[in-house]
Recover the amino acids of this structure.
């Protein structure tokens, strides 16, 4: 049976989502109103960056900062700086630019089912499935960036955060060469400084011995907060299931759900359908000097 079409959840926060937001992010009507007002004032007095200032946009940056307006303002400045630093990769980036990678090369996938905590789970196939001559490491980064923009459309994802499974099955020298210091600095700079999403867990699975080479490249750039959220499982899926129960994992990871039979091809139309939102993101960043 064909999988259901991949759709984003554009609905308002559920009651459970509101409860999590209040407990974990201080999200109450009074705190939200005060934070929105303060952040708008900070942006009005900042002539270096340009962002929309409607509630929905500001919430994207306030939620990961637990509604501390100054922290959200700093995050917006880091996002703007990052987009400028890597403008060769990110300037005017649209889903169509990576259509071939999404449609024909199954490097990045998102589980149709949420995990037991209602979080999105992204799968990165960076072992033998990744043909580095067809999808470069810069394209892989661009795909991550496009997906994170889509994720910010989901209020539940903004509040609950997301999980990543890095699947290194069949990792070889070609992939190791692509996971180089330039890529690792860019990716980790994005995750740690310029990603307005709550990355809750990163699970490394099926990593062979050669993975040590990759880890040696990445680990110097990983700060304590992220380090504490990275878990190594190798081929021990029971270890993975301590974090995500079998009831919420596909057969590929010895879970109870059916084997993954879908890919980027199935959910690219959804991402493409939000072209106007991507265009909006492309207007955000450092103010152009006249």
């Amino acid at each position: 049976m064909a999988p259901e079409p991949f759709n984003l959840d554009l609905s308002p926060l559920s009651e459970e989502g509101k409860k999590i937001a209040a407990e974990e992010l201080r999200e109450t009507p009074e705190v939200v109103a005060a934070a929105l007002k303060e952040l708008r004032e900070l942006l009005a007095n900042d002539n270096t960056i340009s962002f929309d200032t409607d509630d929905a946009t500001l919430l994207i940056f306030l939620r990961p900062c637990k509604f501390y307006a100054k922290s959200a303002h700093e995050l917006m400045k880091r996002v703007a700086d990052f987009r400028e630093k890597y403008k060769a990769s990110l300037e005017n980036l649209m889903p169509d630019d990576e259509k071939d990678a999404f449609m024909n090369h199954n490097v990045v996938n998102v589980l149709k089912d949420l995990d037991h905590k209602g979080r999105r789970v992204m799968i990165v196939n960076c072992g033998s499935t990744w043909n580095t001559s067809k999808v470069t490491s810069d394209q892989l980064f661009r795909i991550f960036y496009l997906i994170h923009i889509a994720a910010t459309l989901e209020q539940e994802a903004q509040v609950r955060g997301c999980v990543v499974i890095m699947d290194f099955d069949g990792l070889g020298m070609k992939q190791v060469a692509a996971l180089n210091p330039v890529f690792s600095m860019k990716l980790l700079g994005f995750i740690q400084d310029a990603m307005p999403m709550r990355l809750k867990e990163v699970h490394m699975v099926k990593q062979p011995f050669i993975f040590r080479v990759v880890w040696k490249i990445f680990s110097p750039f990983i700060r304590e907060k992220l380090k504490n959220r990275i878990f190594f499982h190798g081929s021990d899926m029971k270890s993975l299931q301590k974090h995500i129960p079998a009831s919420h994992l596909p057969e590929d990871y010895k879970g109870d759900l059916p084997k993954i039979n879908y890919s980027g091809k199935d959910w690219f139309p959804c991402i493409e359908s939000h072209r106007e939102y991507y265009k909006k993101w492309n207007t955000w960043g450092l103010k152009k000097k006249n």
